[in-house]
Amino acid sequence: PVEVFDLVIFGGTGDLARRKILPGLYRRFLAGQMTADSRIIGAARGELTDDAFRTMVAEAIDEFVPKDRRDSVMIADFLSRLHYVAIDAKGEGGWDALKGLMRDGVVRAFYFSVAPALFGDIALRLKKHGVADEAARIVVEKPFGRDLATAKALNATLAQHFLETQIYRIDHYLGKETVQNLMAVRFANILFEPLWKSEYVDHVQITVAETVSVDGRGAYYDKSGAMRDMVQNHMMQLLCLIAMEPPYHFDPDAVRDEKLKVIRALDPVPQNDIVRGQYLAGGGQGGYLEHCENPASSTESYIALKVHVSNWRWKGTPFYLRTGKRLRARASEIAITFREPPHSIFDDAKGWRENVLVIRLQPDEGMNLMVMIKEPGPGGMRLMQVPLDMSFAGVLGEEAEDIPDAYERLIMDVIRGNQTLFMRGDEVEAAWAWTDPIIEGWNATGTKPQGYDAGSSGPEDALMLMHRDGRRWREIR
Ligand code: BG6
C-alpha cells in the first residue's frame, strides 16, 4: 500500500475523472494499494452532496470497470471514502471548506483535471487559502500549452506557487506497462544495447494507429491536430525512451536528463519529410470535416514524419513516426529494423530479410524478434524469417489482467512521490521548441492535409515518404 493520502480532483465530475481517474482509484483500492483511511475529494463548480457524488462515481465504476472486477461490498467501502466540495476556481467560494477537509500528516495531492486556463487560478488559491502544504503535489494534464510560448507561461505560473519537485505533468503513455518495458528491455539485457546504434540499426518505425474518430471532441481536436495531440507528447516520449543514452540510475532526474538530450538533438524537420492527412467519410460514419464541424479545416487527423536524432549514436538512422485516427486497426508498436550482415556466406541467399525487433504497445502487448533460419527441407540453403514471439498475456496468464492501467500507476506514483514517469518542465518546453517550427512551416505554406479512406492505413503520400528511401511501413493490423 501507498501512504495515507487526501487526493483532491478538480474537475471531479468531468469526463476524465469519470472514465479514468475514479475507476482507476477504485481498482487500486481493490488491489489493496489505497489504504483504508485515504480519501478522495471531488471538487467542481456544481453544487453536489457527498451522496450525489458517490452515486455518480458508482455509475462510472459500473460503466468503466469490467464486471468481474466489480464487487459490491468493496465498491460501497470505496465510495465511503469519497467527498465532494463545490468550488469556484476563479473566485473564493468553497476554498475554506476544502481546507477544512484537509488532514495534517497525510500526503496531499491535487489533480488538475480541468482546462489549462484554470491551472493558474487553482494553483494560486491552493496556496492562498492554505489548502496545499509544503509537501503537496499537483498533477496537471495535457495539453500542456499549445506552443512554446504558452507552455513557458504555464510553467512560470505554476512555478510561482509550487516547486518543480511538486509538479507532476502527466503523459499517460509513460504509465503504460509496455512503455516502461522499453526501458527494461534496453537496460536490463546485454543483448540489445551493443546493437542499439546507427551502425547496426537501419531505421526505427513508431506507429500509434487508432480506429476511433474525433466525433464528439471535434471542437478540441480541431485546434490541436495529430501533431499537438499525439506527436509533441506521447510519440515524443516513445522516441526518447528508444533513443536515449542509458541513465546512470533509474531515478527521476537521471531519466529525464537523458530524455531531454534526445529532444534537443532532434533536427528540424523539412516540410518535405512530413505527410498530413484527414480521414474521409466512410463505413457509415462522417469524415473529419463533418466531425470537426469546420468544412474549411486544415487540421490533420493523421501525420507521418521522418525524424533525425543528430548525435553520435543515431546519425544516419531515421526514425519514422506516424499516428492517426480512423485507421485500419488500433495498433501501437515500435519496430527496430537492423542492417544487413556485412557479408553473406550464402551465394544464393533467397528469402533473406532484415532482423526486426517489434515491441507491441497495444493491444496484445508483447515483443517479437524476427530472425532468419534455414527453411526446413532438402532444397538447399533457402532462408526464412520466423518470429521469436512473446506476448505478455501468454507469459503472465491471469496476472496480466491485474496490471494497473496507465492512470492508476501514475496516480500511485504521485502519492509515492516518484516523478520518474512524469515530464519535467524543461522537457515539455524542448518538445514544443521542436514542434513549433514544424507547425509554422505548414501554416506558412498553407498546405492542406491529404484525404485518406477511413479504415485504411493512411494517406498515399505517407507510403511515398518511406518508398523514396527504399523502405516501407509495416502493415497496420
Ligand atoms: C490522448 C489523445 O492523449 O491519447 C487522444 O488526446 C488519443 O486523441 C489518446 O486517442 C490515445 O490514448 P490511448 O491510451 O488510447 O492510446
Characteristic terms for this protein:
alpha/beta, 477 residues, nine-stranded mixed sheet, single chain, 19% strand, binds 6-O-phosphono-beta-D-glucopyranose, six-stranded parallel sheet, 15 helices, globular, NADP, 15 strands
* Bound molecule kinds, no repeats: 6-O-phosphono-beta-D-glucopyranose
* Total helical elements: 15
In total, the number of strands is 15
Strand order of the largest sheet: 14-13-12-11-7-10-9-8-15
**Overall mean confidence score, pLDDT:** 94
Q: What is the gyration radius calculated from CA atoms? A: 24 Å
- Termini, distance in Å? 39 Å
Structural class: alpha/beta
Q: What can be said about the biggest beta sheet?
A: 9 strands, mixed
Helix and strand element order: EHEHHEHEHEHEHEHHHEHEEEEEEHHHEH
Helix residue percentage: 25-40%
Shape assignment: globular
Low-confidence blocks of residues: none
Report the sheet-strand fraction: 15-25%
EC number: 1.1.1.49
Function: Catalyzes the oxidation of glucose 6-phosphate to 6-phosphogluconolactone.
Catalytic activity: D-glucose 6-phosphate + NADP(+) = 6-phospho-D-glucono-1,5-lactone + NADPH + H(+)
InterPro entries: G6P_DH, G6P_DH_AS, G6P_DH_C, G6P_DH_NAD-bd, NAD(P)-bd_dom_sf
Report on this model:
This protein is of the alpha/beta class and 477 residues long. It has 15 helices and 15 strands. The protein has a nine-stranded mixed sheet, with helices on both faces. Strands 3-2-1-4-5-6 form a six-stranded parallel sheet, with helices on both faces. The chain is globular. The chain binds 6-O-phosphono-beta-D-glucopyranose. 6-O-phosphono-beta-D-glucopyranose binds next to loops. Pfam families: G6PD_C (PF02781), G6PD_N (PF00479). Catalyzes the oxidation of glucose 6-phosphate to 6-phosphogluconolactone. Pathway: Carbohydrate degradation; pentose phosphate pathway; D-ribulose 5-phosphate from D-glucose 6-phosphate (oxidative stage): step 1/3. It catalyses: D-glucose 6-phosphate + NADP(+) = 6-phospho-D-glucono-1,5-lactone + NADPH + H(+). Belongs to the glucose-6-phosphate dehydrogenase family.
